[in-house]
Amino acid sequence: MFIRNMPSMMNLILYTMDMAVQNSPRQLRSEARPKSVRPYEPLDETDRRIVAELARDARLPNNVLAERAGIAPSTCLGRVRALRERGVIRGYHADIDPAALGRSLRAMIAVRLQSSARGHIRTFAAEVARLEQVLDVYFLGGKDDFLLHVATTSSDDLRDFVENLSDKPDVAYTETSLIFEHVRAAAAGGPV
User: Fold this and answer.
1) Poorest-confidence range of 20-24, 113-117, 163-167, 171-175?
2) Are 57 and 127 in the same domain?
3) Residue 167 belongs to what domain range?
4) Is the pTM of this model over 0.85?
5) Phi, psi for 174 (deg, rounded to 5)
6) How far apart are CA 158 and CA 136, in angstroms?
7) Is residue 121 part of a domain?
8) Distance, CA of 120 to CA of 2 (rounded, Å)
9) Which carries the bigger pLDDT value, residue 82 or residue 9?
10) pLDDT per residue as tens digits for the range 53-105
11) Which residues of 113-143 are buried (b: 16+ CB within 10 A; e: fewer)?
12) CATH no. for residue 124?
């Protein structure tokens, strides 16, 4: 079922291409853009509980969140606000099933750019982030430059997408792997 060989999933995903979203028509409001988390401000146990609960269910009412964290609702509200201001909580998102939108075939596509295209990395990321099939764009360290999470309507749609991507002059190489199932670690009780 592999379209091309599976990329090594051991590549370290350094960060989501927030810059691609910031430079695209899907631009986020400035207050919703991620802020850098300062490493010298560690989370205490209460903040960790709040973050873990919100990662499992971001729609928890404040009073339920406060009870689970073992603090007063007013304290909880203040801590959540502080976590947002520090950039620990970067946003709240609806997790939409692409199949409900007619895009049931999902894949991860590793992309390696031409060595001459290094000056176009941000432009490339912004361009692919605008494509309707693209759910996420990851900038990687390792042999590949990007990992694209895509959802398509059919295998023909996926093939056309990969062919169009491969035809871009900055693209040197692509590898496509189909996704059979996606399980969110935080929702399954795993680490945040």
Assistant:
1) 20-24
2) no
3) 12-28+96-179
4) no
5) -135, 150
6) 15
7) yes
8) 29
9) 82
10) 999 999 999 999 999 999 999 999 999 999 999 999 999 888 889 999 999 99
11) beeebeebbeebbbbbbeeebbeebbbbeee
12) 3.30.70.920
Say what the pLDDT of residue 72 is.
97
Q: Is residue 126 part of a domain?
A: yes
Q: What is the dihedral of CA 78, 83, 89, 91, to 10 degrees?
A: 40
Q: What is the pLDDT of residues 111-156, one digit of tens each?
A: 999 999 888 899 999 999 999 999 999 999 999 999 999 999 999 9
Beta strands in the chain, from DSSP E residues, in sequence order: 12-16, 105-113, 134-141, 146-152, 171-179
CATH code assigned at 72: 1.10.10.10
Q: What is the token pair recorded at 70?
A: 């073992």
Q: Is 80 exposed, middle or buried (0-12, 13-18, 19+ CB in 10 A)?
A: buried
Q: In one letter, which amino acid is 33?
A: R
In order of 106, 150, 175, the CA distances from 178 in angstroms are: 6, 10, 10
Q: Which amino acid is at 11?
A: N
The mean per-residue pLDDT over the stretch 104-110 comes to: 97
Dihedral of CA 153/159/160/166: which sign? positive
Query: Based on the domain organization, do 78 and 127 belong to the same domain?
Result: no
Q: Please count the structural domains in the chain.
A: 2
